[in-house]
Amino acid sequence: MRRTDRRLRWTIALVLAAGAVITAFPLFWMLSGSFKPQREAIDFPPTLLPQDPTFDSYTQLFTDLQFGRYLVNTVIVVLIGGVGVLLMAMAGYAFAKFEFRGKRWLFFLVLATLMIPVQVTMIPTFLVINGLELTNTLVGVALPTLVSGFGIFLFRQFMTTVPAEMLEAARLDGAGEFRTFWSVVLPMSRPILAVQAVLAFIAGWNSFLWPLIIATDQNSYTLSVGLALLNQQISVDPSLQLAAASLMVVPVLVVFVFCQRYIVQGFALSGLK
Fold this sequence. Notes:
Blueprint: H1 2-34, H2 38-41, H3 56-63, H4 67-97, H5 103-112, H6 118-131, H7 138-142, H8 149-159, H9 164-172, H10 177-188, H11 190-206, H12 209-214, H13 223-233, H14 238-269
Protein name: Sugar ABC transporter permease
Family: Belongs to the binding-protein-dependent transport system permease family.
InterPro entries: MetI-like, MetI-like_sf
């Protein structure tokens, strides 16, 4: 029995290792190809590792193309999304710890927004943003995704676990509602804040369709739109395209790696799987 169990564990480990290698190989190929010169990138048969590694593709992105501008725009959109995380935390706290008329119906409406496809609301949202004269602005790019029903739901689920005694103790000490929220609830909500911050970062960083619709000026493009524009303009330089793709993918992986522990903890404490 022990020998059979050991063989089973080794078999499972080998299958999982093979799956991990297959999954990670496209990422490795993208990073490796981004350091190849153009001549080597189009050689056949291709080489796994660059024979003459160079940063020329990354340099060209920021000197000859406008990827520096696209990167700044994307970072600004992500930072604006951070304000949305705070707003969703406030809404989740209200639904979790306050009693007011219409609370259940309001929360039902929040959940109902999850069943509406984003594509359905794009035209009305564009008309509203255009009426506010926010087209071709980064605020207009970030505003429609500032809050989400899923984010409010996550915060609400987590904040129901905050002990009411701690809130009462803070109020007895003279803290107002905002002070209680800021000094007691938010520090206890770090895991779910990390989850929502990562989700907001990914949504803002990878956003493509809405920035493409709302921004007609290249100075307002984000990285994803710039990458699509690059693929249309340049079709014979795989190294440059892979470098731009790496610039899109690597920051998301880095954020996830550093916040992985909080993400798992946040989902576990929220009761989600």
